[in-house]
From TrEMBL:
Name of this chain's protein: Peptide chain release factor 3
Upper taxonomic lineage: Bacteria, Pseudomonadati, Chlamydiota, Chlamydiia, Parachlamydiales
Protein localization: Cytoplasm
The organism's place on the tree of life at top rank: Bacteria
Taxonomic source organism: Candidatus Criblamydia sequanensis CRIB-18
Key words, A-Z: Cytoplasm, GTP-binding, Nucleotide-binding, Protein biosynthesis
Main location: cytoplasm
PROSITE patterns: G_TR_1, G_TR_2
Chain residues that bind GTP: 22-29, 90-94, 144-147
Length: 533
């Protein structure tokens, strides 16, 4: 290994690239903010949130996000945490924005799943967890809001296991709950960890005191009743719980569980420290040579490569630009690097690369595997494109989820047709909305999305960014599926419609789940798939 490979290896080892997944309101924004607090990026928490008309969140960009107080677009932030370099991918929590979120997850090497202790595993968490499973992404579980009356911790562990079908291992165990939440028992170090609020509440770091197992001082602090219950539960975990191994965690077979409260900072720092220890650094990724043969791309041994997981138009209103977000998979990136885009068979110079440091766009001179760079995209990129120094291979395609909402969209003013077409092209390139064409009639355009809010955003952005007012007519389809098999023998139901997606894959649109199931029965020699992996 030469010197430049050694420094590349050092940079790779330092990096932790991950996403925080949760159902809305479980505490993802609060936890992200605390990560910024504990890394020293912000002095006090409570400043970067964008909810309820407060100052915009560090990762919020568009005015609509600020108006609505929800984070719609995915972004990435980089900052140091102790000896590590963190790349946190911000995944929109709103359920209509799931597809964007799903794609962002492919750029992560691991995920933190935040669960509200009072609510348990909720719908959106389940869907997001499924994507992690599809891509074998290891998941750490953060059970939040332990400072509030919540569900029984054992019950929560069981729910994670049963609903998500993954083994769970409690890394720590809560000592008391609600207003009696004193701290946690660290099952790895075998010690009591107590937290106390500073006079500034959760806006500043919580003080931590550690005591060894059976310390009389600790027992006195928590009282005999809580101590007895704690010992019983710890015994139960030893006897009935799963074992934990790093390998099984990395393979996505077991999730380490941490109990904490992001708002009060109780358990936050020990969690982040454990996260740095457990979470993997960027590792090998599978790719295919152009003849289909599978290969592995090593972050250190292979020269620069990456792939586009997100496109976003009009990030900078003054320039009407569009940005392609690239996850670096191997090699060192240097500004102005010329790379090959395998899909186009073209060379592209990656000039003006940007990174995000706590919401501020910065120009990058270097970047390493695991990092996310944003490059201005004069239509050189599509979602899923592989770029590399030498070309010749493609990373696995990104999963695509079946749209569930369909509509026709036209410009109110016929004279604005050109701007409409331009806006539609750029916004559908971003991938939140899919443009489908009739299977038989190419000019029959249908817009499709995974959630309703995406249409609202599309109309808003067409008006705001391209000056085009539009008329949206919802279509009666409720679900869809890609069709695998010979289209000549496919039996189409009367109410369903056949279309093709951007890549030319045939799809069927159905007016009900029942109709879809019936169609599946009518076509035993075809496969109807919900996710294109
Ligand atoms: P999200 O990004 O997952 O949607 O959740 P977010 O962090 O915005 O948190 C949702 C609500 O839950 C917020 O309250 C937040 O303060 C609260 N919260 C987060 N973590 C904890 C915790 O550990 N304990 C308690 N008790 N609450 C927590 P809000 O009323 O919606 O907003 P705000 O007025 O507090 O900002």
């Amino acid at each position: 290994m030469n010197d430049s490979q050694k420094s590349l290896q050092e940079a790779v080892k330092q990096r932790r690239t991950f996403a925080i997944i949760s159902h809305p309101d479980a505490g993802k924004t609060t936890l992200t903010e605390k990560l910024l607090l504990y890394s020293g990026m912000i002095a006090t928490a409570g400043m970067v949130k964008g909810r309820k008309g407060r100052k915009a969140a560090a990762s919020d960009w568009m005015s609509m996000e600020q108006e609505r107080g929800i984070s719609i677009t995915s972004s990435a932030m980089q900052f140091p945490y102790k000896d590590a370099i963190i790349n946190v991918l911000d995944t929109p929590g709103h359920e209509d924005f799931s597809e964007d979120t799903y794609r962002t997850l492919t750029a992560a090497d691991c995920a933190i799943m935040v669960i509200d202790a009072a609510k348990g595993v909720e719908k959106q968490t389940r869907k997001l967890f499924e994507v992690c499973r599809l891509r074998n992404i290891p998941v750490l579980t953060f059970i939040n809001k332990m400072d509030m009356p919540g569900r029984d911790p054992l019950e929560l562990m069981n729910e994670v296991e049963n609903v998500l079908q993954i083994h769970s291992y409690a890394m720590n165990w809560p000592i008391g709950t609600g207003k009696d939440f004193h701290g946690v028992y660290d099952r790895v170090k075998n010690e009591y960890v107590f937290f106390s609020k500073t006079s500034h509440g959760g806006s500043q770091k919580a003080a931590i005191a550690r005591y060894p197992a059976n310390s009389p001082e600790a027992i006195e602090k928590i009282g005999e009743d809580i101590q007895e219950k704690l010992l019983q539960e710890l015994d139960l975990l030893e006897i009935a719980g799963n074992p934990f191994s790093l390998e099984e965690f990395l393979e996505g077979k077991v999730t380490p569980v941490f109990f904490a409260s992001a708002l009060t900072n109780f358990g936050v720092e020990p969690f982040f420290d454990a996260f740095i220890d457990l979470a993997p650094c960027p590792h090998k990724r599978f790719a295919n040579l152009l003849d289909g043969k599978e290969i592995e791309i090593d972050p250190v041994e292979n020269p620069f490569s990456g792939y586009v997981f997100k496109l976003q138009a009009n990030m900078d209103r003054r320039h009407r630009d569009s940005m392609a977000f690239i996850r670096i998979c191997s090699g060192r990136f240097e500004r102005d690097l010329t790379v090959k885009n395998v899909r186009l068979g073209k060379e592209v110079r990656l000039s003006r690369p940007h990174g995000m440091v706590a919401g501020e766009r910065t120009t990058l001179d270097y970047a390493y595997p695991g990092d996310i760079i944003g490059v201005i995209n004069p239509s050189h990129f599509a979602i899923g494109d592989t770029i590399s120094l030498n070309g010749g291979f493609k990373f696995k395609p990104l999963p695509q989820f079946q749209p569930e909402i369909f509509a026709r969209l036209i410009s109110k003013d016929i004279g604005k047709r050109k701007s409409f077409d331009k806006g539609v092209l750029q916004l559908t390139n971003e991938g939140a909305i899919q443009l489908l064409r009739g299977y038989e009639r190419e000019d029959d355009l249908i817009f499709a999305a995974v959630g309703k809010l995406q249409f609202e955003v599309m109309q808003y952005r067409l008006k705001d960014e391209y000056g085009v007012e539009t008329i949206l007519t919802p279509l009666p389809y409720e679900c869809s599926a890609w069709i695998k098999g010979d289209m000549k023998t496919f039996v189409k139901l009367t109410n369903s419609t056949l279309v093709v997606d951007k890549q030319g894959n045939p799809m069927a649109l159905f007016t009900s789940q029942w109709e879809k199931q019936y169609c599946i029965k009518q076509n035993p020699n075809h496969e109807l798939v919900d996710v294109l992996v």
